[in-house]
Amino acid sequence: MFLKSLASLAAVAVAVSAQAPNWGQCGGIGWSGATTCAGGWVCTYSNPYYSQCLAPSSTSTKSTTTTTSTTSKSTTTTTTTKSTSTTTTTSTTSKSTTTSSTSTSTPPASTGFVGVSGQKFTLNGATYTVAGTNAYWLAQYSNADIDQAFSDIAAAGLTTVRTWGFNEVTSIPNYGAYYQSWSNGVPTINTGSTGLGKFDYVVSSAKAHGIRLVVTLTNNWSDYGGMDVYVSQLNPGGTHDTFYTNTKIIAAYKSYINTWVSRYKNEPTIMAWELANEPRCSGSSGSASSACVTTGATINQWASTISAYIKSLDSNHLVALGDEGWFQEANPPTYPYAPGVGIDFNLNLKITTLDYGTFHSYPESWGQTANESAWGVQWIIDHAASQKSANKPVVLEEFGVTNNQATIYQSWLNTVVSSGLTGEQIWQAGSNFPDGTTYNDGYAVYPGSAVYTLIEQYAATLKSRG
Ligand SMILES: *[C@@H]1O[C@H](CO)[C@@H](O)[C@H](O)[C@H]1NC(C)=O
Ligand SMILES: *[C@@H]1O[C@H](CO)[C@@H](O)[C@H](O)[C@H]1NC(C)=O
């Protein structure tokens, strides 16, 4: 242990030429990159899997580390590492030319917008790793709970959280956040403290914890209102898929989008806008027009129009569809490769105003319960192949099983890493709040559990893969 620390001290002394960039990773289990920071910044311990270069003045209360040790976090190591990094800090600070004025309590990671280069995400000139989770419920909790959720997520080394930017209501709820209320076909956007004002807090807390947000703007499902409220209010009696074609509905949805996008257009904490959660042709009524069902053209056309609209308002943020990644194969091996729901993943990936592709994996809901692990592995491999042909990032942005989670997630996450798939976001990391745990839909995993630890480990692995 002691020798190892001496060895890493020696490595620090010679490794001056390869320094991690501001805000970049500089240590953690499995990390083999630079362990010192450029410009006098300080390599700061975040958790066993992740240390990050932070501005000197923002690091006073945390112990710093330059170790890439894959061994345990013993007291001896910690103590030794602390004194090591004190030395490092002093010496690197003395040659600092760019001690940042952005530090103090300014959130570490929320400078610069997440961008795309080929099949990777970028941030401030480095690769940005999407290793994250979904927390659709954030705005429905108290501010203290929101802080706790982001704190747990950040401590796990996750970078990215997908959350809901919609809640359509037809009567005002007496708790939680809602963003649009409807009466006789007239929508009213709630910009107050129970609406967008509340979402401002979600953004500020994410920012304070160095987390980026993917914000989804409507729902295929009727949870939190979604598309079916637009249809019932503006095209009563219409099928669910008229959401994608009815001109009054498109205008109303654009108006809603305009309010959100204009409000946060210059906010780097938001990584991406997402057009919908799991858009499909059929809705609660189970019926859809045949044009929507038999081809991917309806949703493809809609996704082109809406994503281009967002880009016309906001060139800072990425835009994604939020679909489940269905293919339209002539001889589909299983249901999710078959035409029918109205999504053609490869066609949608060609839309120039969509910056990256999304897909989900729920074999239990998709008739693959007997073959979950292998089916999911193939599903990931097939989307990674689409990613390569389109030369755009693709993210497994929701995945879940309710049985054998650790074994199945490990096989899937190994496949994410080995296939070169750009990123992943589990459905869903939960938190333990003072007044109870976050809602468990059967998929939630909580800090301290084996599956949660697995997610932490793969976040570190993906960061080091790049
Ligand atoms: C779309 O939403 C409806 C409920 O409104 C549901 O019946 C249908 O299965 C959903 N499709 C998905 C999974 O996107
Ligand atoms: C399980 O899924 C894989 C990948 O799709 C497939 O190759 C295999 O034939 C499936 N096995 C069974 C028993 O369905």
From TrEMBL:
Task: Give the compositionally biased regions (Low complexity).
Answer: 57-106
First-listed, main subcellular location of the protein, grouped into a coarse class: secreted
Q: What is the protein name stated in its UniProt record?
A: mannan endo-1,4-beta-mannosidase
Q: Which Gene3D superfamilies match?
A: Glycosidases
InterPro entries (alphabetical):
CBD, CBD_sf, GH, Glyco_hydro_5, MAN-like
Per UniProt, residues of the CBM1 domain are 18-54
Report the SUPFAM superfamilies cross-referenced here.
Answer: (Trans)glycosidases, Cellulose-binding domain
Its cellular-component GO annotations read:
extracellular region
Chain residue ranges for the region called Disordered: 56-109
Q: Which UniProt keywords apply?
A: Glycosidase, Hydrolase, Secreted, Signal
Write out the similarity annotation.
Belongs to the glycosyl hydrolase 5 (cellulase A) family.
Does the keyword Signal belong to this entry? yes
Question: What does the record give as the reaction this protein catalyses?
Answer: Random hydrolysis of (1->4)-beta-D-mannosidic linkages in mannans, galactomannans and glucomannans
The signal peptide annotation in the UniProt record is 1-18
- Cellular localisation: Secreted
Where is the chain membrane-spanning? none
Q: Which GO terms describe its molecular function?
A: cellulose binding; mannan endo-1,4-beta-mannosidase activity
Question: Is Hydrolase included in the keywords of this UniProt record?
Answer: yes
EC number in record = 3.2.1.78
Q: Which GO terms describe its biological process?
A: mannan catabolic process
